[in-house]
C-alpha cells in the first residue's frame, strides 16, 4: 500500500493508521485482537509516547495475525465522531478490542501509557490470555505444557520440532518466543514451568530460562545460544532446517539438483562479501536501471554523476572495472550539455573508444545475493551491500582531508530517487532520509545510519511477499555472525554500537571480499573486443546500404541493387524499353555451376545476372501485405508490367510500389517476383520463381481466389454432396417402409 502520513504515524512505522470511515469494519468482528491508541497530534505527551508505540509495533510485527497495533488522530476533524463514539476524552488513550468484538463495543481501557515497549509487550500477552470465549485463531496456546501433554504431542501434531522454554512462572520469555514463531511452520513453542519437576529432572535443567528441542523420535537436545534471551531463541529457532514462514509461498530446496533458479546454485559463505555480487550490481544499475531513461537531464544527471563519483573514489573493484568507471566519470565531467542520451552513455560503457584494459561485466552472476527463486533477492540485496561497502570505505579513506559524511548517503539517495525502478521502495527510503539523514555529522555515523535504516526496512518487509522463505529478513547482523553485537536488558534487546562499528568495518573490508565465481579479466576483455568487432561490421554494412540510397533514388534512375551501379532510365519510354530489352535478352555471359545456387535463385540464370528495380524510391517504414496469387494474376504479361510502371510514374508525389520484370530464362516463361524494400536499408528479397504457364492456368481457375479459398470450396462441395446423398438414401428407405407394411 502507498505510504499514508497521518498525524504522528505512517504505515512505515508498522502502525495501522485508522480513520473514521473504516474503523468499524476493521475493529469489529475481526479474527485478530486490536490495541488502538487514541491521540491528538498537538498533545505533548502523545508526541513523547509516539516513539514507544512505534518501537512496540516494530518489535511485535510477527504477532500481527493474532493482534494488530493501530492509532487514530482525534485532532483530525474527520475522526472526531469516532473518538466521541468510543468515549475518548483524554490523550493518549489505549483501548484493547478482543477478537470478534461485537459492533458497538467501546473496548477495554488501559490506564498505563507511560510504560516502555517491553512492559507493553507483556501487557499484550496478558490481554491475549484474557480471551475466554473467542480465542484468536492465529494465536498459539500460551499456557504451560505438562508432562502428560508432552508425551502425546507428536501423536496429534505434524511438526518437526517442539521447542520447550523452561522458565519461572513470572517470566514472559516462553510466551514471547511462542508469539515470535507463530507465523512459522514445522515448529511449535511451549513454555515449561520450573515447578514441572518431572520434566525438569528428566532433562536435568538447571538454568532458567533455557530452551530444549524435542523431536518426533522422542529425543531431546538443548538449543545452543550465545545469550539465554528471547531474541537469541527466536533467531536460532527460525534458522532450524525445514523451518520457514508459512503462507502461500512454496517450499523450495537449495540443492543444485532441485534448485529452480535459472542457474545452478552457487555455494557461498554467509560471513563474506563476494565481488561477483558487487559487479553484478554495477551491471544492473548502469545498464538496466539507468538504461530505462533514454534522456538523462537535470537532477537525474546530477544524481548519476554523484553515483559514478563515489564509485570511482571508494569502490574497491578490479583494475579493468575501475579503468572503465574512471573513463565514464571523465566523459560525464567533460560534457557541458544539460542532458545526456543513454545511447551515448552506453558507448562509453561498451568501451567503444577502446581504452586499454577497461571493461564492465555484461551479465549478472549472483552469489550471496542469489535467491531460492529467480524473483527473490538479487539486485536489491546487492545494492544494499554496495552502499554499505561504500560508506565503510569512505569512513576509512585518507584521500580527502575534509571528507563529507553525507557524500555517499546523498549519492545513494539521489540514485534511488531517480533510477531505482521500485517506486514504492524509493518513496520509503526518501521518507527515512528526510527524517534523520540530516543529523549525520561524521563518517562513522553515516555507516551506522545506513545500517540502522537497513534493519528498519528488513523489519518492515518481514513476512511480505518479497521475502525469500529460505532467507528470512531478520535484524542484521544476526547473533551467529556477531554474537557480541547483541544483548538484552530487562527483557529488551539492544545493540552494542561499538561492536557493531567494529563488525561492519571488518565485514566490508576489501581484504575480505572473495573473488569466487568471477569471470576472468582476459575473458571479459576478449568478449568485449569480439562484440565491438561485430558491431563495427554491422555499422559498416549499414553505412554502405545508406550510401547506396541517394544513387538509387536520385533522378528516378534505375539502380542496380546487386552492385549499386546506376543504369540509364530517366523517362517513361526508357523504362519501357529496358523492360522489353530485359524480357528479350538471351542467355549469355559467364556460366557457373548450379549445384551451389541459393534457394531463391534460378539455376538456369547466370550468377552475375543483376535484377533491377525501376524508378525506385525509398519508402517509409511500413509493412505491405501482398497476395502473390492475385499479384501474379494481374502482372503475368510484360505488357501489363509496362502499363503498371507507366501508371506508377505518373504519381510522382506518392509512394511507388515495386516493379516486376520478366527475367531472362531459357524458355522465357519464368517471372521473378521481387518484394518491397524492407524497413531498413535498400535490400530486397527475391521470391521463388514460378512457372508462368502453370500460374496462368491456375489463375484462370481461381479467378482471383487463393489456393486456400479453392481448397475450402472443394471441401464444402464434397461435404454437401455427401449430405445430399445421405438425405436421398434416408428418404428412399422411408418411402419403402409403408409398402412393406402394406404387403405384410
Task: Walk me through this protein's architecture.
With 744 residues, this protein is an alpha+beta fold. Helix content is 42%, strand content 11%. The protein has 24 helices and 24 strands. A five-stranded mixed sheet has the order 3-5-4-6-7, covered by helices on one side. It has a four-stranded mixed sheet with strand order 10-8-11-12, with helices on both faces. The longest helix has 37 residues, at 707-743. The radius of gyration is 40 Å and the shape is extended. InterPro entries: ERV/ALR_sulphydryl_oxid_sf, ERV/ALR_sulphydryl_oxidase, QSOX_FAD-bd_dom, QSOX_FAD-bd_sf, QSOX_Trx1, Sulfhydryl_oxidase, Thioredoxin-like_sf, Thioredoxin_CS. Residues 372-476 form the ERV/ALR sulfhydryl oxidase domain. Residues 536-551 have a biased composition (Basic and acidic residues).
Can I get a quick summary?
With 744 residues, the chain is of the alpha+beta class. It contains 24 helices and 24 strands.
Segments where pLDDT lies below 50 for 5+ residues? 1-5, 248-261, 552-637, 652-692
Q: Structural class, please?
A: alpha+beta
pLDDT averaged residue by residue: 79
- Please count the helical segments: 24
Q: Which term fits the overall shape?
A: extended
Strand order of the largest sheet: 3-5-4-6-7
- The gyration radius over C-alpha positions equals 40 Å
Which percent bin holds the helix content? Answer: 40-55%
Q: What is the rounded distance between the termini?
A: 87 Å
Biggest sheet record? 5 strands, mixed
Strand content: 5-15%
Question: Count the strands?
Answer: 24
Enzyme class: oxidoreductase
Protein name: Sulfhydryl oxidase
Pfam families: Evr1_Alr, FAD_SOX, QSOX_Trx1, Thioredoxin
Domain ERV/ALR sulfhydryl oxidase: 372-476
Amino acid at each position: 500500500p502507498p505510504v499514508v502520513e497521518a498525524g504522528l504515524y505512517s504505515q512505515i512505522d508498522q502502525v495501522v493508521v485508522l480513520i473514521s470511515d473504516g474503523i468499524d469494519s476493521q475493529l469489529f468482528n475481526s479474527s485478530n485482537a486490536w490495541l488502538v491508541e487514541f491521540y491528538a497530534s498537538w498533545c505533548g505527551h502523545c508526541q513523547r509516547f509516539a516513539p514507544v508505540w512505534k518501537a512496540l509495533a516494530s518489535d511485535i510485527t510477527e504477532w500481527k495475525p493474532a493482534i494488530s497495533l493501530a492509532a487514530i488522530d482525534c485532532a483530525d476533524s474527520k475522526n472526531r465522531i469516532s473518538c466521541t463514539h468510543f468515549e475518548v476524552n483524554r490523550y493518549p488513550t489505549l483501548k484493547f478490542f478482543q477478537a470478534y468484538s461485537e459492533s458497538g463495543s467501546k473496548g477495554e481501557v488501559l490506564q498505563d501509557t507511560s510504560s516502555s515497549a517491553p512492559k507493553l509487550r507483556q501487557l499484550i500477552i496478558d490481554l491475549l490470555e484474557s480471551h475466554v470465549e473467542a480465542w484468536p485463531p492465529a494465536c498459539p496456546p500460551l499456557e504451560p505444557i505438562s508432562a502428560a501433554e508432552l508425551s502425546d504431542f507428536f501423536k496429534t501434531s505434524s511438526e518437526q520440532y517442539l521447542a520447550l522454554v523452561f522458565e519461572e512462572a513470572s517470566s514472559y520469555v516462553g510466551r514471547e518466543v511462542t508469539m515470535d514463531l507463530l507465523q512459522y511452520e514445522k515448529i511449535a513453542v511451549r513454555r515449561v514451568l520450573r515447578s514441572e519437576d518431572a520434566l525438569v529432572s528428566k532433562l536435568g535443567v538447571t538454568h532458567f530460562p533455557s530452551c530444549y528441542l524435542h523431536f518426533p523420535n522422542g529425543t531431546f537436545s538443548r538449543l545452543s545460544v550465545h545469550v539465554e534471551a528471547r531474541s537469541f531463541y527466536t533467531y536460532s529457532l527460525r534458522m532450524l532446517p525445514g523451518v520457514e514462514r508459512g503462507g502461500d509461498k512454496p517450499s523450495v530446496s537449495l540443492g543444485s539438483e532441485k534448485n529452480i533458479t535459472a542457474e545452478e546454485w552457487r555455494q557461498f559463505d554467509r560471513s563474506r562479501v563476494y565481488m561477483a555480487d558487487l559487479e553484478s550490481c554495477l551491471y544492473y544499475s548502469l545498464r538496466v536501471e539507468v538504461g530505462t531513461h533514454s534522456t538523462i537531464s537535470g537532477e537525474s544527471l546530477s544524481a548519476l554523476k554523484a553515483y559514478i563519483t563515489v564509485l570511482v573514489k571508494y569502490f574497491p573493484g578490479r583494475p579493468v572495472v575501475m579503468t572503465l568507471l574512471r573513463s565514464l566519470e571523465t566523459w560525464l565531467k567533460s560534457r557541458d550539455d544539460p542532458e545526456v542520451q543513454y545511447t551515448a552513455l552506453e558507448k562509453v560503457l561498451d568501451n567503444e573508444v577502446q581504452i586499454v584494459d577497461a571493461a564492465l561485466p555484461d551479465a549478472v552472476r549472483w552469489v550471496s545475493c542469489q535467491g531460492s527463486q529467480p524473483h527473490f533477492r538479487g539486485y536489491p540485496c546487492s545494492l544494499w551491500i554496495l552502499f554499505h561497502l561504500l560508506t565503510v570505505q569512505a569512513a576509512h579513506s585518507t584521500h580527502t582531508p575534509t571528507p563529507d559524511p553525507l557524500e555517499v548517503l546523498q549519492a545513494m539517495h539521489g540514485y534511488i530517487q531517480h533510477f531505482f525502478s521500485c517506486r514504492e521502495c524509493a518513496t520509503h527510503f526518501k521518507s527515512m532520509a528526510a527524517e534523520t539523514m540530516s543529523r549525520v555529522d561524521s563518517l562513522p555515523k553515516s555507516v551506522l545510519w545506513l545500517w540502522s535504516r537497513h534493519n528498519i526496512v528488513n523489519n518492515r518487509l518481514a513476512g511480505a511477499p518479497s521475502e525469500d522463505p529460505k532467507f528470512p529478513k531478520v535484524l542484521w547482523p544476526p547473533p551467529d555472525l556477531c554474537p557480541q553485537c547483541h544483548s538484552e536488558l530487562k527483557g529488551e534487546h539492544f545493540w552494542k554500537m561499538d561492536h557493531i562499528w567494529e563488525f561492519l568495518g571488518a565485514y566490508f573490508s576489501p581484504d575480505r571480499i572473495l573473488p569466487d565465481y568471477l569471470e576472468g579479466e582476459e575473458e571479459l576483455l576478449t568478449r568485449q573486443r569480439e562484440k565491438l568487432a561485430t558491431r563495427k561490421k554491422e555499422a559498416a554494412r549499414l553505412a554502405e546500404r545508406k550510401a547506396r540510397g541517394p544513387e538509387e533514388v536520385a533522378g528516378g534512375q534505375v539502380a542496380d541493387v546487386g552492385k549499386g551501379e546506376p543504369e540509364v532510365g530517366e523517362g517513361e519510354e526508357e523504362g519501357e524499353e529496358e523492360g522489353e530489352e530485359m524480357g528479350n535478352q538471351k542467355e549469355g555471359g559467364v556460366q557457373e555451376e548450379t549445384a551451389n545456387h541459393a534457394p531463391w535463385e534460378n539455376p538456369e540464370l547466370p550468377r552475375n545476372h543483376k535484377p533491377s528495380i525501376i524508378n525506385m524510391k525509398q519508402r517509409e517504414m511500413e509493412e505491405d501485405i501482398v497476395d502473390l496469387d492475385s499479384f501474379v494474376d494481374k502482372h503475368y504479361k510484360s505488357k501489363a508490367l509496362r502499363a503498371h510502371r507507366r501508371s506508377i510514374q505518373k504519381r510522382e508525389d506518392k509512394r511507388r510500389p515495386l516493379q516486376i520484370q520478366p527475367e531472362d530464362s531459357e524458355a522465357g516463361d519464368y517471372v521473378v517476383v521481387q518484394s518491397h524494400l524492407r524497413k531498413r536499408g535498400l535490400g530486397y528479397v527475391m521470391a521463388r520463381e514460378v512457372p508462368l504457364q502453370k500460374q496462368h492456368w491456375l489463375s484462370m481457375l481461381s479467378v482471383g481466389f487463393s489456393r486456400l479459398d479453392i481448397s475450402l470450396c472443394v471441401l464444402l462441395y464434397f461435404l454437401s454432396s455427401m449430405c445430399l446423398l445421405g438425405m436421398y438414401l434416408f428418404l428412399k428407405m422411408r418411402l419403402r417402409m409403408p409398402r412393406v407394411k402394406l404387403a405384410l
